[in-house]
Amino acid sequence: MALKVKVGIVGMGQGGASIYKTLRSIEHIEIAAVCDCAETAQGMQLARLDRVKTLSSLDDLFKITNLDVIIEATGLEYVREQINSYKEKSCVVIEAQGANLMMHLIEEKEKLADIKRLKGELDAILNSVQEAIEVASIDGNIKYVNPSFSRVTAIPAGQRIGNNIFEVSPNGALARSLRTHEAVFAHRAVVGGADVEVVANASPIVVEGKMEGAVVVFQPLTDIYKLMEQLRASNRVIDDLQTRINQISTSSYTFDDIIGSHPEFESALDLARKAAKSNSTILITGESGTGKELFAHAIHASSLRLDKPFIKVNCAAIPETLLESEFFGHEKGAFTGALKTKLGKMELANGGTIFLDEIGDMNLHLQAKLLRVLQEMEFERVGGSQTIKVDVRVIAATNRNLLQMAKQGDFREDLFYRLNVVELGLPSLRNHKEDIPAYVHSLIAKFNRKFGKHVKGLTTKAEELLMQYEWPGNIRELQNVMERAMVTVDEEIITHKQFLNLVEFPQTIHHEQIIEEIMPIEQMEKHLINMAIERYGNAVEGKKQAAKALGISLATLYNKLKTMG
Hints:
Helices cover 46% and strands 17% of the residues. It contains 24 helices and 19 strands. The longest helix has 33 residues, at 96-128. Pfam families: AAA_lid_14 (PF25601), HTH_8 (PF02954), NAD_binding_3 (PF03447), PAS (PF00989), Sigma54_activat (PF00158).
């Protein structure tokens, strides 16, 4: 019996967690311990669930004897140096890049094994089906026939494979499909030495857009109706699976992507982190553009459902007549245009999280059905009678006052309280403007990558300009303004001029523009005083601050204001 490789992992954030999830399923690998100074790191929680030893100090890791491999997933130089200094000589250190390469190799090996297994399953299926199957390459060379082909036609496989279909059956469905590059349906013919009348269907084999050959499937005419019914059933299964695959997604952001240090913002972030660990329904409130969807993604990514679907529904973007079908799906024939059964968002989100954006725009009828899902975790598709049970965590978001809407009869009060188990209120950007420099720095880095530029930052005046604006569109508006400025800037530094035509900034900005021009000192003094009064206000306290900023006494300021009229 082969000895297991004893592994320790350092750094259990998103990268370390991914490595952990891959290695824990490999038979010959034993994960002895994982280490991260953050007890709440994603991978630390996974390890605790698996009863794997979790450590918060490297010193504790070095106490574990006979470690074969230490995977360093933090990417930090000092951590790597410490590991290399104190590890046992026989222990190998693999950095995150090497671990990722190892993971890719494992994944490729697993894919190859899956392909081999699939081929074996396919051979078994083709050999057992009652329909006759024949495959030819693009030049007509016959590559494969299944046992049913020989049974129906009385032609042994050895006498068929290797011949050319254009010679042995030039008028058959397979030859016709190869010539026309099109499918051939319901082609009737008499085949083989048995003189059996069959109905054949032939189709091109297309790989990555290129036709490589064709396949024909046929059977005696007496079995054709059974074959068609089986084919229809198979197509329904394939369509349902394709629908599920096309619509299922996962979260795109984590809490590491969320920036903000203002106490009110940090309070919201702390509540979101705590709520993520539960299965409670969450209602995210805040003005448009405050980052409600970003928080929803991060909550899912930090929950125990992180490896399950994350389905988003924008209640404001879907027509009201289609909203119920989008949520709960519909049965074939439920209404005009319902040509096949469709899975709804709730069914697709089973086991994971559904994010209901703009929940305040949902109609009252659908609110009642949603309430039942939250209470009973079950529903029926539109036009269906079968009860479908689901396990879904709901996160809702709105920029409207749902409680006020409930009092006015525009929103179900019982649904409001069911959604409002945990209320997460996001502050407006104007209430935490001190975070603007950090946002700007992050956005510059993002748009440098997007546009291939090398912008380093803003001038002081440009930053002051952004700090003065009230940002009614919040962080989304700031991102839009920064992107448009990055598109137009040609230098490495963005000046306030790049922003002036993008939004309506305060009037003080116009004074700043004038001061850039050469003018009489008396006129400049007047403009400076006007700027100071507009910035600090016309009250006594504001004038005191204005005088201090101008470097003059309050009495002097009053005298100058009197002179200016």
